[in-house]
Design goal:
The chain is α/β, with parallel strands linked by helices. The chain is 41% helix and 25% strand.
C-alpha cells in the first residue's frame, strides 16, 4: 500500500503548553488508522495541526499529503488538496436544512450534476437524513447531526477523511451504527484517520492503531494485535486480565479490613 499521509516529528504548543511532543505517524492509502487516548492526550490537536486550524503552526516537523508538504497551508488549500475534516462536536449549520448543509460541503466544486449525484449517494449512506432532508439541522438528534457532519465532509470528494471523536455523546446503539457506516465508507475506498476514545470500537474497524499519552505516542501496531494486548485491554478497553483482577480483589479485601 502507498503512503497517503505522513507526519514527521511534529511539535505543537498551545501558548506555553507543550501539546505534541515529536509526533510521527503514517496513514496508508485505503486504510483506517485510529488514534486512541484519554481526554487531554493531544489527539484532536494532531488533526487540527494537520488542517492548519491552529493560530500557531507546528514549531518543528513536517506534514505531507500525497508526497507534498501541507504544514503551514491554509485550511481551504488543504481541503482543495483532498482532505476533509469532521470536527469534534459536529458543528453543523443549525439554521440550514440537511440538504443545505450537504451543499455547503461541496463549496469548492462546480460540477452540478456530480454534486447532485453525490447528495443521493450520501443520503443512501444515511437513510434517516433522506427522511429529514428539508429539516433544520439544529432540530436533529446528536446521532443525526453526526451523520450530517460526515455526509457534509464527504461532499468535497476527499481522498482522506479526518474524523474527530465521532462517538462522542452518542448512545451505544448509535455508536454501533456510526462505526458501521465508517467501515462501509472505508470499504468503498475512503482512507480515514480516526481520533476516538472508544478504543474497542475504533480498533474493531481500523487497520492500524496508535495510543497517545501526554502528547507522545506510547504504542503503535496493527489494530488486531493491540486488541489482544493486556495493557490496552485493561487501560483503554476496561477489560481486566485474570491476574490484574485477582490483584484488585486482594486490594479490596485488604482495604475492607483496615
Amino acid at each position: 500500500m502507498a503512503t497517503m499521509f505522513d507526519i514527521k516529528n511534529i511539535e505543537t504548543f498551545y501558548g506555553l503548553i507543550y501539546a505534541l511532543r515529536g509526533v510521527s505517524l503514517t496513514v496508508e492509502e485505503g486504510t483506517i488508522t485510529a488514534i486512541l487516548g484519554n481526554n487531554g492526550a493531544g489527539k484532536s490537536t494532531i488533526l487540527k495541526t494537520a488542517m492548519g486550524l491552529l493560530d500557531d503552526q507546528p514549531d518543528k516537523g513536517t506534514i505531507e499529503f500525497l508526497g507534498k508538504r501541507i504544514d503551514g497551508k491554509d485550511p481551504e488549500v488543504i481541503v482543495r488538496r483532498g482532505i476533509s475534516y469532521v470536527p469534534e462536536g459536529r458543528e453543523v449549520f443549525e439554521e440550514l436544512t440537511v440538504l443545505e448543509n450537504l451543499s455547503m460541503g461541496a463549496y469548492i466544486r462546480r460540477d452540478r450534476a456530480g454534486i447532485k449525484g453525490d447528495v443521493e449517494k450520501i443520503l443512501g449512506y444515511f437513510p434517516v437524513l433522506k427522511e429529514r432532508q428539508g429539516q433544520w439541522a439544529g432540530t436533529l438528534s446528536g446521532g443525526e447531526q453526526q451523520m450530517l457532519a460526515m455526509g457534509r465532509a464527504l461532499m468535497s470528494r476527499p481522498k482522506l477523511l479526518f474524523l474527530d471523536e465521532p462517538s462522542l455523546g452518542l448512545s451505544p446503539i448509535l455508536v454501533k451504527e456510526i462505526f458501521k457506516i465508517i467501515h462501509a465508507i472505508n470499504k468503498e475506498g475512503m482512507t480515514i484517520l480516526l481520533v476516538e476514545q472508544n478504543a474497542r470500537m475504533a480498533l474493531s474497524i481500523s487497520h492500524m492503531g496508535l495510543i497517545l499519552e501526554n502528547g507522545r505516542f506510547v504504542m503503535k501496531g496493527k489494530s488486531q494485535e493491540l486488541m489482544e494486548d493486556r495493557d490496552v485491554k485493561e487501560f483503554y478497553m476496561g477489560i481486566r486480565s485474570e491476574e490484574s483482577a485477582k490483584g484488585f480483589q486482594r486490594w479490596k479485601r485488604k482495604k475492607r479490613w483496615r
